Prior knowledge:
Largest sheet: none
Strand content: under 5%
Family: Belongs to the troponin I family.
Shape: elongated
Number of helices: 6
Organism: Chroicocephalus maculipennis
Subunit structure: Binds to actin and tropomyosin.
Radius of gyration: 50 Å
Coiled coil: 8-60
GO cellular component, one term: troponin complex
Number of strands: 0
Order of helices and strands: HHHHHH
Distance between the termini: 90 Å
Amino acid sequence: SLMLAKAKxxxxxxxxxxxxxxxxxxxxxxxxxxTSGLSLSQLQDLCRELxxxxxxxxxxxxxxxxxxxxxxxxxxxxxxxxxxLRGKFKRPPLRRVRVSADAMLRAxxxxxxxxxxxxxxxxxxxxxxxTEKERPVEVGDWRKNVExxxxxxxxxxxxxxxxxxxxx
Length: 168
């Protein structure tokens, strides 16, 4: 609310300043007319002078208005051209490009990048043979195992199997 009050004061002050500037300018440019004590021919001459001045000012106003209209038309035409150009060219869809780490560092750091980064060099090597020997896989018929464990006998076998390692 304080900002609004301050803005209102400034706006009112600006209006008063503009009015004062207008009055000052008009007082400089326009001299007061003294028509008292002039003859008819002098009054006619004064009217002709004033009429000529009004015509000159009117011509200037017309010229300025014509220039302003021409500029606004030109601006509208240029805006239409800009909109037309935007519509004609479509942005191509960006493609994914695979870039190696070296190329990326070269692009980011420029010529400073000399060390090659081999990301796979730091990985632990694992032999396939070792992993296969560690886990011997018994291939059997899974249906036999299910049949053996089904029913009460299967549960008794599981119970006995669980007891036997701890009992020994």
